[in-house]
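Problem statement: downstream parser choked on a complex file, so we are re-checking the raw output for the zinc ion run. The parser issue turned out to be on our end (a line-ending mismatch), but while we're here, posting the original submission so the record is complete.
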Amino acid sequence: MGLKQPKWLLNPEKRLERKNSFDASLVMGTANFNRHTGRQNTLAPPFGHFLDHDTGLLKGEYLTPRNCPVCASPPGQGLFVKDGFRHVRCPKCDLIYVSLILREDLMLKYWREEEAWTNVLLTGPQVEMDRLKYAYGLEVAQSHFSGKRVLDIGAGTGHFVRLAGEKGFEPTAMELNKESAEKLKEEGIEVIVKSMELADLESGSFDLVTLWEVLEHLTDPKVVLSEARRLLSPDGALLILVPNSASLVTRLLHEKSRTFGGHSHLNHFNPMSLRTLLDDLHFEIVEFETVITELGAINNHLAFEDPYLGEANPFFEFLTPKMIHENLWGSRLLALAKVRNDRDASGKAS
Ligand SMILES: [Zn+2]
C-alpha cells in the first residue's frame, strides 16, 4: 500500500468539515450524546472505598509515588485533588500528571475487569463517532507511511482494528481487558493479551502503530513509546490521540472536566509536553493538530449550566470550531510521527 493523499487533507475547509463530522457536541448535542452513551453510569469513582477521609487522598498503602513520566523531574506545583488523586504540574515540561498513582497490581486488576467504560464504547452513537474519527486518523496517517501491518495498542472494543481490516490493512490488537480480547479473537482478529514490555515482538514488524486515547492511562508512556519505535519499520508511522490539557474546555472546567479522574487518566499532555516526549524519543512529528471541540460543554459552562448535561445556546459568536482548532484548543491532540534516524537510541549523533 503506497502513500495516499486524499484531496481534503490539504484543503483547510474540507479538513475542518471532516473533523466536525465526528465532533459529538456539534453533530448530536452534548447532553444528548452523554445521555445516549450512558456516560452518567461511569461517574462514581471506582476507588472511593480506599479514601482516607482525613487527607482527602487515597490511603498510602494503595499508592505508588512517581516523578514526571516525561522528563523525570520531581512533582511540582500541586493543582488539585480529584477522587482522592493528587494532580500536579511539571515545572519543566508542563505535563499535568497524577503524582501518587494506584499500585500496579490494583491498576492491572482494574484494567482486566473494567466494564463501565467499555459499555459506553459499545453504544451506537459512540461507535458512529469513533468510526469517523478513526477513518480520519487513518487517512491522515496514510499520507505518511506505506505498508499494511498495523498494531493498535489498547485496542479496547476493537472498532479501530475492525475499520483498518475493512480498509485492507492487516491489524493486530493489543488489549489487556479479558472480555474485549476474547471478543476480538472470536472475530478472527489477531490479539496480543500482554503489555507492550512483555509482548516480545520482532523489531520493525509494523508499518503503523496507533495509540487511540491510551497514553493518558500509562504509568510509563516512555517505555511503551520506545518499544513502539523499535517495532516500527524504517518508513513506519506512529499515530497518537490523547486528551489535550490545554484545550479550551479543560482550561475552563479545570477539575470539573471529566478528563480528570486519577485512577485511569494518569497523564495530561498539552502540545508542549507531547512534543517534548516525542522529540526525546527520536520521533519526528509530521502532523500535529487538535480534534473535537466540546463546544457544548464550553457553552453550558459559560451559561452556568451543567457542562455535560446542559442545553445552553452558543454564548460567544467568535467561539467556532475553526478558531478552536487553529489555536490547538480542541479537546484531543492528534499527532503523527515518524522514526527520526539522525541519532542512535542513546542520543549520540551518528
Ligand atoms: Zn516533566
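For whoever reads this later: The pocket of zinc ion is lined by residues 68, 70-71, 73, 90, 92-93, 95 (CB under 6 Å).
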